[in-house]
Automatic annotation (TrEMBL), chains A, B:
<dbReference type="InterPro" id="IPR036388">
    <property type="entry name" value="WH-like_DNA-bd_sf"/>
</dbReference>
<keyword id="KW-0418">Kinase</keyword>
<dbReference type="GO" id="GO:0016301">
    <property type="term" value="F:kinase activity"/>
</dbReference>
<keyword id="KW-0808">Transferase</keyword>
<dbReference type="InterPro" id="IPR043129">
    <property type="entry name" value="ATPase_NBD"/>
</dbReference>
<dbReference type="InterPro" id="IPR036390">
    <property type="entry name" value="WH_DNA-bd_sf"/>
</dbReference>
<dbReference type="InterPro" id="IPR000600">
    <property type="entry name" value="ROK"/>
</dbReference>
<comment type="similarity">
    <text>Belongs to the ROK (NagC/XylR) family.</text>
</comment>
<dbReference type="Pfam" id="PF13412">
    <property type="entry name" value="HTH_24"/>
</dbReference>
<protein>
    <submittedName>
        <fullName>Putative NBD/HSP70 family sugar kinase/biotin operon repressor</fullName>
    </submittedName>
</protein>
<dbReference type="Pfam" id="PF00480">
    <property type="entry name" value="ROK"/>
</dbReference>
Length: 404, 404
DNA sequence: ATTAATTCGTTCTATCACCGAACTAAATCA
DNA sequence: TGATTTAGTTCGGTGATAGAACGAATTAAT
């Protein structure tokens, strides 16, 4: 058989799958119209997809004029993926099916012993989640793991990962693949957040999008033309090292970035201590500001001014349409309001600034997006690496809350 | 005929064309090996391409064992493109053929009357350049015009274009298309520089690349995963508004960016004036520094420190492999050496910093790259918008100096 | 209730792009 | 001179798809 013919068939198959994934239960005639393929071709492909166990008959149309049509839909439990958000304090695992329904989200405190223990913990949580919904292990095809730092796809290592002991020098991807028995993709957690927000959150339909996570540290994720910006060493989005805030040429700024030192939690606490003379945690500072404490408000103002500068820097370089703030600190509405006020004072073009709607779950939503996208691509996709298998629209996706 | 079949054929045709473009004179058997298509298919496609006037026989191989092979090559004068670099002081026009040979580069001072006069000037230069090489007008298929500011593809207007009077509110693209009689693509000049350097300059084979042009102003071009970053309002790369250097919240910084004010020519001159107490032009300052003037050297040091910060900002956000400095000031070797010294003092990961090798011609090289790429795509390309028709490798391209 | 209109899905035939194998042609090697 | 090697063609065959015709099933209209 010809090679190009094989590709041609895959293309058509993919188009059909996409129509079914996106269009819910749909008749063959409708698929033909949508895809511009002829009716018999659709029939043939549908027959094959049904045979292979990816789709099934749903029922028949009725009420319209003309003959009733048989409708088809995805078999949601034909395959599953695992989405993992590995943080310094918590591990989050979710299992999602082909139709993008998410079951069984499990959360647990990260195993403090680090290294292999964390790997085993992730595996255990996966099996636990799967078991909770009676999902057979073999049906899970791949996992996407989000982690802080710069995961290297090639070596499977996570560079510059803070907060998790003992994984600096281990091949996390391989270890996980061994423990789980299927493919594992590593990705930076903030990158997953952008993807998550782009799929189901604040950034729907926005192809030029940035995400800034502010918490104990600061990190950024950037999407350009619908593609993730990873950079050469996967170090794109290391916003902590933006050369302002603290003095960038201070040697200390090479260890903890000049920007991170002043804008993340440590900087906020320090600013409050200097101004007031006593210590307070970040949530306390927010509370005081809400209660009318002017000095606390000043601290937040100053923080927001710095954040606005960060947004301006991103906008000056990449000019995204929207910047989403996330992370425990970035999520605070009081802060975003202030950033919106300060930004036009230091940057002349309009940039939308919003808080993340997915919050702490942004990363796992993003991991799910990548996982399903990979899976769809692997099963039905073209071979082009940048081909984006479009995921179902937000309305049809159920991301139900996990049992705690 | 089937639609997918048509696509399939285009794919194959394109593959053949690519092999011919890249591989110089090449036999059908070799093309078959390279493309993994069968010999007869190649023969068929080659026959058609020859019939359509895109390729021609070149000669025969000899010296090898086995039967001699007929070799084919591109007919370089089958089509031409015009590349235009429209600057505040100079207009540059080049005509290039399908094989990426550039003829007839014309340079002239930009018509000071602006607006339609500039449009007419560009057209005149095009015809002049074409006439100089006896190229019939009809064979020019399209033009790519690089200009400062943010060219909007949709409206054909150039927003925020400094230095050129009377084109703020005119549809430059349409006016040019009317004057020239073929398609015109507008692009930011610094964006063209990145593309140019990526094709024939310092950035060959580097898909994550940044270009900083420092002159009377400052601008940046960014390439991520081989794609240009334009941003929503085509305002990506407006580095002048990076929020450091001068005080970003100073209202003046909204007009002339905080960074631009201190790092571009005005800032350098000002810095010298403050330190020494007398005025000097930028070239003079460089001369003095070269002659051993310590204060002039200090001014350059300070400028380089600021530039290093700019590079750091780009690296923190997008993490390109290399940053190329260009523009009348950025090209100075003395400056780059200093930037290389300062960068590691404010940014922890390695970033290569180089001067542009294409210099003032970077934009026109980039325009040529885009033009030829578009043309190849239009003629033989797949319909995918992001498909990159690969241009011939640097060695085979002759970018001969223009007659002045 | 019968007929008309409409849509669904299949069957049948044709076309197109391509491959593989066999074959011819022309060169070098020994 | 024949063996070897490579180039290119001819011929038959196959897979993916289209288009037209047709039967099937339904609603709307009379």
């Amino acid at each position: 058989m010809s090679d190009t013919q094989r590709i041609s068939r895959k293309f058509s198959q993919r188009a059909v799958m996409e129509a079914i994934v996106q269009g819910g239960p749909i008749s063959r005639a409708s698929i033909a119209k949508q895809t511009d393929l002829s009716k018999q071709t659709i029939s043939e492909i549908v027959r094959q997809l049904e045979l292979e166990g990816w789709i099934r008959e749903t029922g028949r149309t009725s009420g319209h004029i003309g003959r009733t049509a048989v409708t088809y839909e995805l078999i949601p439990d034909a395959a599953y993926i695992a989405a993992v958000d590995l943080g310094g304090t918590k591990v989050r695992v979710a299992i999602a099916d082909l139709a993008c329904h998410v079951f069984a989200e499990e959360v647990a405190p990260t195993d403090r012993r680090g290294g292999q223990f964390v790997v085993d913990q992730i595996a255990a949580l996966c099996w636990q989640a799967a078991a909770a919904q009676n999902i057979p292990r073999e049906k899970i095809r791949m996992a996407v793991v989000g982690a802080p730092g710069a995961p290297e796809q090639s070596t499977g290592r996570i560079l510059m990962a803070p907060n998790i002991p003992g994984i600096q020098d281990m091949d996390v991807a391989s270890a996980l693949e061994k423990a789980l028995g299927f493919d594992v993709t590593l990705e930076n957690d903030v990158n997953l957040c952008v993807i998550g927000e782009n799929w189901l959150g604040q950034g729907q339909g926005i192809d030029n999008l940035a995400y800034i996570a502010v918490g104990t540290g600061i990190g950024g994720g950037l999407m350009v033309n619908g593609q993730l910006v990873r950079g050469v060493g996967n170090a794109a989005g290391e916003l902590g090292f933006l050369p302002f805030g603290a003095e960038p040429f201070d040697p200390e700024s090479l260890r903890t970035g000049a920007y991170e030192r002043v804008v993340a939690s440590f900087g906020i606490i320090e600013r409050y201590r200097r101004l007031v003379g006593e210590a307070a945690t970040v949530p306390e500072i927010f509370e005081k500001a809400a209660a009318g404490d002017e000095k606390a408000a000043t601290v937040l103002d100053e923080t927001a001014r710095l954040l606005a500068q960060g947004v301006a820097a991103i906008a000056a370089i990449a000019n995204p349409q929207k910047v989403i703030l996330g992370g425990s600190i970035g999520l605070r509405e009081e802060l975003v309001v202030r950033v919106r006020k300060f930004l036009p004072q230091c940057f002349p073009y309009p940039v939308e600034v919003e808080t993340s709607v997915l919050g702490a779950r942004a990363a796992i939503v993003g991991a799910t997006a990548i996982g399903l996208s990979h899976l769809h691509n692997a099963l039905f996709g073209a071979d082009a690496p940048d081909s984006r298998m479009s995921l179902p629209p937000a309305e049809t996706v159920s991301f139900k809350e996990a049992v705690r």
